[in-house]
Amino acid sequence: MTLFLKSNKRGVLMKGFCKVVLVFMFLVLFSVVSLAVELDRSETLVITGAAWGPPSTWNILIPNRQMGTGGLVYETLFSYNPLNNEYRPWLAESGEWVSDNEYVVNLRRGIKWTDGEAFDADDLVFTYELARDNAVYYSPVWNWLGSVEAEDNYTVRFTFDEPHYAEWDKELYQRYIIPEHIWTKVPADKLIPRTNANPVGTGPYLYYTAGQDRMVWERNDNWWGNEVFGTPKPKYIVDLVNVSNNITLGMLMKGEIDLSNNFIPGVEKIKGVAGLKTWYEKEPYMLSWNTANLYMNTTRKPMDDSAFRRALAFAMNKHTIVDKVYGGLVKAANPTGLFGQGWLAYLDQGVVDEYGFYFDPSKAVALLDKAGYVDSDGDGWRDQPNGDPIELEVMVPSGWTDWMEAVKVVSNNAAAVGVNIQAVFPDTSLYDNNRFTRNFDLMIGNQQTTLTSTPFDYWNGVANDGIYGERIANGNWGAYDNPELFALIDEFNMTNDETEKMKIAAEIEKTLLVEMPTIPLWHNGLWAQYTNANWTNWPSEDNPYGVPVTWDNAYQLGMIDVLIGLEPVK
Q1: Residue range 18-50, pLDDT digits in tens
Q2: pLDDT digit string (tens) for 487-535?
Q3: Global pTM?
Q4: Which of 197, 265, 297, 499 has minimal CB crowding within 10 Å?
Q5: Is residue 211 within 8 Å of residue 238, measured between CB atoms?
Q6: Which of these, 41, 127, 64, 115, lies nearest to 91 by C-alpha position?
Q7: Quick check: 264 and 286 in contact, CB under 8 A?
Q8: Cβ distance 554 to 289 under 8 Å?
Q9: Burial group, residue 23, by CB count within 10 angstroms (0-12, 13-18, 19+)
């Protein structure tokens, strides 16, 4: 009877839950229909996949602001095209290193903030000095930046105590410039709490309205870039809050959403029927966005042994994850973890050929045997060299269904060579706490750095010295401790000679492949599905003029170009 009552209660709860979902779906759909009445659909681009909660802040000084605030409203000195590894002057007209530790920026003339005030060198200087004098998320730049000075209204000189060339390369297209005449009036204790609704920027869009389920941007017809790059075609951009993959897919198929940056499982099977477009017509369908690694806690045995870690790498069948879990939507990871033009420019293929790993269970067995990991008690599982059993767990967050399936592959691959690794699925908060506190054996984790212009970002994520405190919050989740490697990565960051950088890169790649602190498994996709129901001329492999992604820090990677290149359906 007890079992029946529990089961029946769950059924009632599920029915109630389904009713809530259906009501929410109706409200979303009704809301979209109402929107179509208010806004001309031929001028309105509807997107989703970036926002996971109602719009609440447009404060560019915090990382979790409303998506689009950076890029649509606030702009950067340069943009970066990851498809061809090229920088393009944006708010800057030019920029160059004039000495080993001095970088000079020349700003474009004639740019205005959306309130009519002139944009000039004082705004650029203020943006950085605010981070010097207050604790904001980009304040660490002052650990190596010495001064920033305006030489005239359109020329700014940055002088570095210790030039970090690789980090500065990324800074140029990821630091949003803010108006001095507005933010200088904000008290220091209000800088972070400020919601900053109706933000004043230099960009192509303005705040129009916001609701619980959406953010609506309106085109800035006075944008300075109209004459330089072209005018964005959508007059309005409606960014819907994410609900579920199924709802998003249904709205895509009905033409109610134009672009989704959600991960939609099985899209490769229905894209032709539904009229959905993706970057590639065939596998892998999506561009790559970041690297999913198998992290091993090097403070625990046997993960503290590079021989064990490297043997495990040869046991992993990455293509099973790619084909069976993702249906070909992603790419198997390069053994170095690198991808994208900016990172692969420093790939030493000779190093990969000599030290890289690949799926070879027989080699994994041989390496394990050689290192003394054998079945010493006859129970079918390998033991440690001292005879202690190997009983490990690999964790991913509960509910992350693709990762849950991926770690089952990891567990099965390990079992095939006699290593006992069981998959576990803690809730997201426990997963996060465990990785921050080294309380795990193995785990899958996104490399925190997404598609950027320099491999320094990837290396500094998987191998850095921020591991000596009680908590880790910087990407080196396995607490891999190698001061010599850390020094090499720092040397790459502080070297501006390309020949020398190539040599350093080869050494870094060799060390990571031999030591194998993480096992790169696959490259997560830059999820993007779009339709021609309302807008055409989407970018693709055959028409690679932009990158269709609305995630934070991505508009300057080519989404603005997409807004300019789109054409409304007649």
Answers
A1: 443 344 444 444 455 455 458 999 999 999 999
A2: 999 999 999 999 999 999 999 999 999 999 999 999 999 999 999 999 9
A3: 0.90
A4: 499
A5: no
A6: 127
A7: no
A8: no
A9: exposed
